Structure formats: structure tokens, C-alpha cells
Amino acid sequence: MKTFLFTTAAACVLIISGVAAAQPGPGGPRGDGPGRAGMAIMMLGAADYNGDNTVTRAEVERLQGEEFDFRDRNGDGFLDLADASPTRQRLHALRGDEDGPRRGRRGLARIDADEDGRISRAEFVGREGRLFERLDANGDDAISPEELDAALEARQSRRQARQWWRD
User: Fold this and answer.
1) DSSP symbol at 81
2) Taking the model in full, what pTM does it have?
3) Euclidean distance between the first and the last CA atom of the chain, given in angstroms as a whole number
4) Which are the contacts of 73, defined by CB distance < 8 A and separation ≥ 6?
5) CA quadruple 122, 124, 125, 126: dihedral positive or negative?
6) 55: left (phi over 0), alpha (psi -120 to 50) or beta
7) Residue pair 62/69 in contact by the 8 Å Cβ criterion
8) Quick one: CA torsion of 79, 80, 86, 90, rounded to 10 degrees?
9) CA angle, residues 151, 154, 158, in degrees to nearest 5
10) What letters, b where the CB count within 10 A reaches 16 and e where it falls short, cover 105-118?
11) How far apart are CA 135 and CA 131, in angstroms?
12) What ranges do the domains of the chain cover?
């Protein structure tokens, strides 16, 4: 029975991943989505609550706080295995990895600053701080369209500089 369930689950995963891969997308590192930079831009757009095309640190923290509240299913103020989906909890139990993922720090585990196996609201909300500071060139706690354009142009210049074969 376990073999049947495993085979069925594996087939479902393959079908779903095949459908997702067939979807058109601008292309991340594997050509399967917007990539990290694209996701960051999309997140900034979602955080612009007042629609003025300038994203403040407070707006980003508000969005992250809402996401934390959504993910904290049991309302204990931390994200941990108890907040995971039933499927993820079952897979965790089947792997027998009580100490967390076996291969390094993945997913949300990367932002577990105190490595206690759970993520506090402060750890979750503060995870994008470095990116925000890098994009906020003038330090006014707001990312303007001009600052975002400058960051994107600088990124494009760095990418072109690495393409030595095109010179």
C-alpha cells in the first residue's frame, strides 16, 4: 500500500511540475519563472498599498506582517512545523529529520537567525532588510521609481560586463 501511495504521489508531483514548467514565464535561472530579482520587484509592487509607485519600509513590513499572520496557523507567534501543511508534516515524519532539513538551511530555515527551529515575527518581517537598504539609495526609507530604475540598470550593466564572449 505504501508503494502505491508513494508512486501515486510521485506521479502527481511530476504531472504538476510538468504543467508548471510548460507555463510561459520570463525565465529565472532555470527558465521557469521570474527569478529572484523578478520576485523581489513583484513583492515591492504588492507592498505599495497606497499606489503611489513609491514603496516605504513600513509598507513592506505591513505586507510581511500580514503574510506572517496568514502562515502562523496555530497563532503562537512563531512559524514552525506545527504551522506546516498536513502533507509537509507527514513528509517531515517520513524522513525522520527531527532536527530539520538534512541538506543545509533551505526555505524559511535560512531566516531562522537564532537557529531555534522556529521563525519569530521579527525574523520573518526583517528578512528583506538588506535588499530594501540596497535599493533605497538615498536612505529615506522609501524606494522611488528612480531608485528602482537605477538598481535595475546597474544590475543589467553587471550582467553585460560578465558576458565577455559578446565583445
Assistant:
1) G
2) 0.63
3) 59
4) 82, 83
5) positive
6) beta
7) no
8) 160
9) 140
10) eeebeebbeeeeeb
11) 6
12) 35-162
- pLDDT at position 56 is 92
- Which amino acid is present at 156? Q
73-95 pLDDT, tens digit per residue, is: 999 999 988 888 899 889 988 98
Highest mean pLDDT among 31-40, 127-136, 145-154: 145-154
Each residue's pLDDT tens digit, 85-127:
899 889 988 987 655 544 455 667 778 888 888 899 988 887 7
| Ramachandran region, residue 14 (left: φ > 0; alpha: ψ -120 to 50; beta: rest) | alpha
Helix (H) or strand (E) holding 79: strand 78-79
